[in-house]
Amino acid sequence: MSSRLPTTTAHVRIIRQSWQDGLLEGEVQASQFQWHFQWHFMNGDLVVEPSLGRTLIKDALNRFLVQKDYQLEPGGDYCFTIRSSF
Known about the structure:
globular
């Protein structure tokens, strides 16, 4: 008998991108949580605010950003699945 892992869909909106500053800025929402993020892709630093629930999303968001990197554009809406229930 196999048990299914719970999943949550995270929705990402890219607000701003600056190649000169090495910055991608946006919002991510999962369940009732919403965060603002700044990803400094030149050095791999990801800042997620507010702190409430940040540990639930930060690693999954970082993996998504690294994987989709050059496909993300300002104004774009994206989503990914997290193997967890929020």
